Amino acid sequence: MDKANALVSGRLWRDVTSELAADNPDVALDHQLIDSFALRMLQQPSALDVVVAENLFGDILSDEAAAISGSLGLMASASLNPDGGPALYEPIHGTAPDIAGRGIANPVGSMLSVALLFEHSLRLPEIAAEIRTAVDAALDAGARTPDLGGTSSTGEMTAAVLDELSARAPLEVRP
Question: Residue 172 class from Cβ within 10 Å (0-12 exposed, 13-18 middle, 19+ buried)?
Fold first, then answer.
């Protein structure tokens, strides 16, 4: 995604990604302007696979994608090192200072970010699956923070997910 029709940086972005695409012919590249792509993402989210954008546009698109799921508080993210080095896992909503200390933040994005950590960096997909299953079960049971129209506090939502995790049979993890 870029804004090559209006920004010099967008034209540079296209040049660089086109060069990379030429070196990787097995990867399809489809340049699109950020504004028309934003609409496409809302209308046909399941038609998309991987989206690559500069930081500003990526941040905006990830927030927009969260609206598709129902809340910014549900979304996890991973900034993976292509060389296999350290990675960063965090909810896409960031720190949310406007609601800090009020007990209404949705902890699910953080929990699902931990699931990504287990899956990608620690190579323990079974634990990642357990975390995701526990989150789904807590939501299915009705646990909802205010961003999802519920009344659960951050602590109550966390407790609901932890209760679901403890109700499951313990995993045998092998190195």
Answer: exposed
Does residue 116 have a pLDDT over 80? yes
Q: What is the pLDDT of residues 20-58, one digit of tens each?
A: 999 999 999 999 999 999 999 999 998 988 888 888 898
CB contact set of 56 (below 8 Å; sequence gap of 6+): none
Phi, psi of 89 (to 5 degrees): -120, 125
The one-character DSSP state at 138 is: H
User: Cα-atom radius of gyration of the chain, to the nearest Å?
Assistant: 19
Distance, CA of 127 to CA of 146 (rounded, Å) = 28
Helix (H, G, I), strand (E, B) or coil at 130: helix
Give the tokens for residue 63: 């927030």
**Using the 8-state DSSP alphabet, how is residue 89 labeled?**
E
DSSP 8-state symbol, 99:
G
What percent of the chain has pLDDT above 90?
Answer: 63
Q: What is the DSSP string of 51-95?
A: ----HHHHHHHHHHHHHHHT-GGG-EEEE--TTS---EEEETTTT
Regarding beta strands 76-79 and 88-91, do their DSSP bridges make them parallel or antiparallel, or are they unpaired?
antiparallel
CA distance 120 to 161: 21
What is the distance in angstroms between the CA of the first residue and the CA of the last residue of the chain?
39
